[in-house]
Amino acid sequence: MAALLKKSEIIKYIFIINILSVLIIISNYNYLLFHLLVEGLTVLVSYIMIIVLINTRKFNNNSTYTFIGIAYAFISSLDLMHAITYKGMNIIPNITTNTPTQLWIIARMVQSITFLLIFKNVDKTFKNAKAAIIFFLVFIYSMLVIKDGRLFPSCYMDGSGLTPFKIYSEYSICLILTISAFYLIKNRSKNILINDEYKYLLFAVILTIVSELCFTIYIGVYEASNIMGHIFKLLSFYFIYESIIKKTLQEPYEIIFNNLNTTLNQLQKSNYKLHYKNLELMEIKKWLERSLRIYRDFFEILPFPVIVIENGKIFYANNKSKELLKLKDKKELIGKTFIELVADEYKEMAKERISELAREKVVPPTEETLICKDGSRVDVEVTSTSIFIEDKEYYMTILRDITDAKKLKVVEDKLEEKLQYEKVRNEFFTNLSHELKTPINVIYSALQLQDIYFDKEDFNNVRKNNKIVKQNCMRLLKLINNLIDITKIDDGFFKPVFKYNNIVEVIENIVMSVAPYVESRKMNIIFDTEIEEQYIEFDSDLMERIMLNLISNSMKYGKIDGTILVYIDVEGDYVCIKIKDDGIGIKKDKQESVFERFIRGDRSLARSSEGSGIGLSLVKSFVEIQNGSVYLSSEENKGTEIIIKLPKADISEEIAATLESDIEASNIIKKVDLEFSDIYDL
């Protein structure tokens, strides 16, 4: 037994070391996540402690540990508010860096005073109800400090760092903790604490002192002393947790299990003697009834719901089952089938589980939803097994409430989605810096060469340099225009100018205007249409930008001697504009995200063509602003087709004849120069 305990201790400490290692690694990459995890773990440990104390109060009359549990519940609540208000969380508006630091000092002061009171009066009985009221008032005061930081002395000033009050407070806390450790050592002789409890409590106090000292010497939050301060704080909470578990769970359960083992041994001896001592039958029967009460008492103190089923009906349920299903009396379950408790959509699953249990005698855990007495729903993990008592089969079902776990999973999924968005956004800004830096470097280099060419009167190279400067200026202008348009669209200030116009004529003019540019890239562009005239309501300027962007993409990713086809036809109530090329295409796993903000197919800086990754996102926004939709069809190494659908307009031929096109070839050429500015060697 001792060897097994030693082995379990080794596994436990290896697990703790792994957790601490992961936290330290995370701190090197994302301090805010590290801080949230550490504070979250300390809060979780504290809440588990108070839950354990509440659920073991029937056989644990130690008011000292109850006082510790109450104190840590409120201390961890303050730490939770400290984490929520920490700089960068952005959960509570108008919170300064000073507020979480004030909450930290309040929590540590309460913690140190708690230790002092406990260890100085270790043999006294604490009035925990009054203590809870005091802690609650401190918590309310802390909430007021969040609202108005002037209710507590400033602990952190932006630009100057920690205030003297904060530093001296840390030293005062360390002094109180040192005095607490002295009293703990002094009062050990009173035999109130066993060796393990004393050891864990002393470790907790020492680690808290070390943690506070670490927080008095750091300058920046990313320094090793700050990181280690949080690690030591987490360890101190863990040792408090270990002490309470030793006192409230392991000791009572060891007594129970020892009694059960003794009972089982006696039962075996009695069974052997039963064949020879029939006169002792009644005495053994009474003893078995006493054993049954022990088993039932054992089920009652278990921290999870247990239901026992006989012949398909519930004949026993512990108090945790009553609490889970929000019943006034657990007897309300007796005589019911388990299927009656299950939500309709899970009844078939529950029936299959019960059928499998009858065959296999044990089934793996399943997730089901139960209906409570008040009509609310609770998600549970159901574990069932078959047991035989006196040759009679029973089914024991253990339930675990996973409602909060499922909610946590949703939060984790949203967090992962946010992290992915941040990753894409960071890649975009890296790409954006490249997009800004490259043309600026080119312009700067060209201007440096300009003086040399002027001195040599080499005007041909001067003209070439001017062309390079102009192209890169337009490239910068295009990028800036796109960013401005994104901002306008996001803020709702982008207002299109709708006019009725012949969409076929507009698209044809655009294609004809870009034809020389396409041919200079040794590519072909073809315009084809099923209709000669179709008037719709759209913004001609946006349509030009849409088409020029899509054609420039086809040129960038097309191939030598390749073809770009622009085709117009009508499908029902929509005009379809299709731009198709025979270039490199887009990978399947990238196709769903090409219209998303900041996404490029090639994210490397050493890519084959330039671009910021916002062009197709703008195209999608421009199309949707005009009540249209855009789709993509692509096959790798075979080409890409973009399809734009715009609603047809109900306009008479007489009105259409009076409309004049506001598209000028010279304006298109200027826009072509701008939109094609990131295509070189034209």
TrEMBL record:
Stretches that traverse the bilayer: 10-26, 32-54, 66-89, 101-119, 131-147, 167-186, 198-221
Molecular function terms from GO: kinase activity
Catalysed reactions, semicolon-separated: ATP + protein L-histidine = ADP + protein N-phospho-L-histidine
The enzyme's E.C. designation: 2.7.13.3
Keyword Ion transport tagged: no
Keywords: Kinase, Membrane, Phosphoprotein, Transferase, Transmembrane, Transmembrane helix, Two-component regulatory system
Histidine kinase domain sequence ranges: 431-650
Annotated InterPro entries: HATPase_C_sf, HATPase_dom, His_kinase_dom, HisK_dim/P_dom, HisK_dim/P_sf, MASE3, PAS, PAS-like_dom_sf
Enzyme class: transferase
The protein's name: histidine kinase
Species per Swiss-Prot/TrEMBL record: Clostridium omnivorum
